[in-house]
Specification:
The protein is built from 22 helices and 10 strands. With 516 residues, the protein is an alpha/beta fold. It has 4 domains: 125 residues, Rossmann fold (3-Layer(aba) Sandwich), CATH 3.40.50; 173 residues, 2-Layer Sandwich (Alpha-Beta Plaits); 81 residues; 101 residues, Arc Repressor Mutant, subunit A (Orthogonal Bundle). The strands form 2 sheets. The protein has a 5-stranded parallel β-sheet with strand order 2-1-3-4-5, sandwiched between helices. A 5-stranded mixed β-sheet has the order 7-8-6-9-10, with helices on both faces. β1, α1 and β2 form a beta-alpha-beta unit. α2 packs parallel to α3 and α9 packs across α10. The chain is elongated, with a radius of gyration of 29 Å.
Length: 516
Amino acid sequence: MERRGGMNVLVVDDEIGTRGYLAEMLRSFGGLDVREAVHGRDALEQMEAEPSRIVLTDIRMPVMDGLELIRQCRSRFPDVWFVVLSNFAEFELAQQALQYGARNYLLKATITRQEVEREIRRAFLHYEQAGEQQSAPFNANELIMVRNSLFHERLDGHIRNEELLRRADRFGVAAFDENKYLPPSKFAILEVERFEEWKDAKFQGRTDLAVYALSNVASETIRSWNESNELFHLGRNRFVALDLEETDDERHECKLREMLAVAKRYLALEASALSHCGFSGMDDFFEQVRHARERMDCFFYETEACVLDARTVRRPEAELDLLSFFQSAEGGGRIGLSGLPGLVETYFELLRHLGRPSSSAKADVQTLIRFIEKNGFSVPASLKAEVERLQAYRLSEYKSLFVKWLEEVGGADSQREEIVKALAFIHERYASKVSLEGLCAHVNLSRSHLSKLFKTSQGVSVMEYLEAYRLRQARLLLRTTKDPIAEVGERVGIGDVFYFSKVYKKHFGINPSKDR
């Protein structure tokens, strides 16, 4: 290899044999200043004293692993050329290292002199093109990477504002001017739907390219609101969009819907947004982002491409014996086949009200299966297997499995298509005004015909079923929220608090004020 003075190379590995072998190989190339480190922290300390241009690092090491080394170097030394050394079993970690900014990975078991020399030549070429081993100004995409790295260093508490500003100034990143964060402002967190599928289809799984594409499109929109606005990658499919100096709720939400429409139009991406996250000052901004990040499970219980107000999102209810709770809320009566659809709807509404961590959703759905079986119904093994296999993006995906099963077990006589549509109409719109005339129009049947079919199928009239369903939802709200009784009544479609209390006691045998 042609000699090129001044190029520092650092080999990081806790195994002395591997480390020594690679170091000697690199020295034999000539023209390289080769150093060794036993773990990530050792490497970081050496680089603080004298930065290396090329780093070959193992992934699994004590004290500090290779991934953490690369992550910390992204904001301190973003132009370092990282090559990861991995084993076959570490393929996923090696891919994660590439997402963090590593240039390539080499398999320890099959590494050759030619492969190492090729990586060194690639690094030389990179620095030559940047101008004879001088750091070139970052291009637009590199600036996005550095900006996001600095954002995470501050968000995770690794650095304070002073160090954040120092590094931002050093790398020419203008996103962290303290003055622009001082006025009362808002931000939103975006959750991009099906981001992994889009990334795989459009960018061969390259997270960095997917982030660049979305950032460039969205940033153009948000900077039309305020030229100082920024978009930060929060991780995976989530992004933080600044709306600086905005305090008007309606205008803020309109802006967000505009940005979501732009993402759909130009990138064919749907996204949801957690809006109205207020802050004043840089410290408060990072604190509020941390709080909002903890509440992102709220999207799991909503429809896709929705906008939620962060101020109304409740903290999840994690500690609850769901089976006992649901049994008591349902009143313990025997459930017939015709009552199964309403029971399933009520249970999924309960899960939505509780907003428990999405990680518990599979177990919660399996609790529903246990409840159904305790009532004498046989749940097929195929449905249980589908629930176990499904990695749901939304709760509605679990619900659709039960809806399909209910359609199969209902039978043509007991669950005519018009009755299925009528039940779905009631379950979806019970909180608003529902009239028999409107329901007849929806299923395209006369009043008398629908009433007869419904009574035969469900054993009660349409309006009796509607009222009972509303009261079951009310009981769930009373037992899972601190909302006033009048507000609970309104939320289930019964606006008169006196009438609500009367029918509630008649149905459950207890006043709503005593049933909390």
